[in-house]
Amino acid sequence: MCGIVGYMGHRKAAPLVLKGLQRLEYRGYDSAGMALYENQVVSLYKTQGKVADLAALSNFKDANQSIGMGHTRWATHGVPSDANAHPHSSNSGELTLIHNGIIENYEALKKLLVGKGYVFHSDTDTEVLVNLIEEVQKSHQYQLGKALQVALSQVVGAYAIVVFDTKKTDELVVAKLGSPLAIGMGDHEYFIASDASPFIEYTNKAVYLEDHQLAIIKQDRPPKILSIATDTFTDYYIQELELSLDAIEKGGYKHFMLKEIYEQPRAIKDTYRGRLLVEEGLIKMAGVEEHLDKFLNTKRIIIVACGTSWHAGLVAEYILEDLVRIPVEVEYASEFKYRNPVISNQDVVIAISQSGETADTLAAIKLAKEKGAFVFGVCNVVGSTISRATDAGAYTHAGPEIGVASTKAFTTQITVMSLMALRIAMAKESISVAQFKEIVNELELIPQKVEIALLLNQRILEIAHTYKTKHNCLYLGRGVNFPVALEGALKLKEISYIHAEGYPAAEMKHGPIALIDENMPVIVVAINKGYYDKTVSNIQEIISRKGKIIAIVTEGDTTVKELADHVIEVPETMECFSPLLTTIPLQLLSYHIAVLLNKNVDQPRNLAKSVTVE
Ligand code: F6R
Q1: N or C end of the chain: which has fewer CB within 10 A?
Q2: What is the rounded distance in angstroms from the CA atom of residue 13 to the CA atom of residue 100?
Q3: How far is the CA of 338 from the centre of ligand 1 (A)?
Q4: Is the model's pTM score more than 0.70?
Q5: Are 581 and 570 in contact (CB under 8 A)?
Q6: Which atom of ligand 1 is nearest to the CA of 609?
Q7: Are residues 113 and 144 in the same domain?
Q8: Best probe residue, ligand 1, of 406, 416, 497, 586 (max atoms within 8 Å of C-beta)
Q9: Structural domain count, the chain
Q10: Are residues 226 and 341 in the same domain?
């Protein structure tokens, strides 16, 4: 969480940093700040609130400085406030620093610094870090880079930081451990950011700093990258990015979330493009291919993920078990490492993460690797920490997901996991050639069917009007659509702040049915597969208690139509792919309710897109 931006070059830094912060605001929006620097003078601006509040503090267009840094914060240590906003200065005022991450031993370090006479003006761990660097610098007469290296060796935690020193008029120093940091390589200009979106219109060349690396950036020469542990300068790889400006802008939609919901047909197609070779009856996935023996020989697969990605993992459990006939366990990554799980080098662990930066998922990966498991990553963000920390992997190709509520990540994660299941099943011969063909033919049709499901938008808007004032909502589903119920409930609560719960439909009678009365909307996924009749019985039970039913059914359904207050019909498909369609109306329903309630859909309160703290 938190977004950082830095610039050194020949342009005016202020507007560039502000625009960069706006693009990174998905990472946190409790406060924003900027420091501009020239001729040994630092101008500092910071405020509680959003980047727009920061922009209102001054006429930044007139600021001529060409070195600057900015920060948008997701609060960890200390409430959102002006004082806790970054950048933070050292006591002498000579060092200025922005930080994404957490310094876990900050209290001990703070005590030490207070003992030496340092005074603190905020509750943040970051202010401790900047003063620690100052203390190292002063006591050893070190240059900034060396002081930072020594200070960081005393720090426990995670960081991506940018710091400048008023004694050095032409230098920015950056370092990384755990949190992401990219350096955009322009022509005699350098950009620093949590991801490439702040600089993509200026350069498509980027260096992603590795953990335990520090870079010294000067305008007149390429950056020097130092390994903090070995104290040696290292070579680095300059990546050519494929990110386009269109992909990170709203493109005429009112919100990123809506744009991303509508992008799903394209995103799903991009995810299977080049992998699903229908004519040849093949699936090609390099990451799976190269390690097929691991998947074929394992006795079980463990999926670790958080939030929406965990829901995609639950859907994948059904598909993998059904097609591959290998037992699958799906774990909250956040719980995984706290219960001493039984893992060995016989196990395959699949980590699913849109951002590829989620700290809990990363911690689970580390543990699984320590225990010798083969770890496979399913990520969306190319080059992200998780994609690099895993033994192999497959990207989802959803394109940047900027709305904090995950949408296209979910459907593309299911697509990747389906492709994997099919590839492994084919190698294992756990499905016949005819079954394989039937399934891949259907998968190819999914984007078209998602387009049809998106046509339901107007109808869903009407339903949203009816239910927008409710305070509670239940979501029910069975089988592969139980995770869809969980995901529908998560979407509603995170962006509209309406309390919502997802349950397996059959669990209703074991408790939640007590909640049903005429004020309780119940959203039921009741497609014509699997346990349809049983789901219909559950609907009857709810109606008997006067609950209001919004049913997601298969096109042409007649039974549920008779019973439900509202019916939303999605195209017919195989049960395994039905989540790719049933989830669409649920995403749209949450979106419309949140918009009608005037909530900030793309940046819901208290949340951030990449959760880089455990
Ligand atoms: C919900 C949402 C979160 C994320 C979760 C995991 O809409 O976005 O629940 O799914 O924080 O994030 P990733 O997938 O980036 O690991």
Answers
A1: C
A2: 20
A3: 20
A4: yes
A5: yes
A6: 8
A7: yes
A8: 406
A9: 3
A10: no
Instruction: Note the pLDDT tens digit of each residue in 490-533.
Output: 999 999 999 999 999 999 889 989 999 999 999 999 999 888 99
Structure tokens belonging to residue 400? 């940047």
CATH at 258: 3.40.50.10490
Kindly list the distances between the CA atom of residue 27 and the CA atoms of 179, 405, 564, 566, in Å, as whole numbers in the listed order: 12, 12, 40, 37
Residue 607 belongs to a domain: no
Edge-first strand listing for the sheet containing 348-353? 328-332, 301-305, 348-353, 374-379, 392-395
Q: Are residues 159 and 235 in the same domain?
A: yes
Select from 229, 247, 265 the last residue of a domain. Answer: 247
Residues 226 and 347 in one domain: no
What 3-state DSSP class applies to 458? helix
- Please check whether residues 20 and 126 belong to one and the same domain: yes
The predicted structure's pLDDT at residue 483: 98
Q: Which residue's alpha carbon is nearest to atom 16 within ligand 1?
A: 353
Q: Is 473 a catalytic residue?
A: no
Say if residue 613's pLDDT is above 80. Answer: no
Length, in residues, of the chain: 614
Answer yes or no: 306 catalytic.
no
- 448 and 461 assigned to the same domain: no
The residue out of 247, 269, 291 marking a domain boundary is 247
Q: Which two tokens stand for residue 332?
A: 């909250």
Q: Which two tokens stand for residue 15?
A: 């507007």
> Which of 354, 381, 390, 491 is the best mutation target for the ligand 1 pocket, counting ligand atoms within 8 Å of the beta carbon and taking the most?
354
Residue 360 domain boundaries: 250-452
CA angle 551, 553, 556 (to 5 degrees): 130
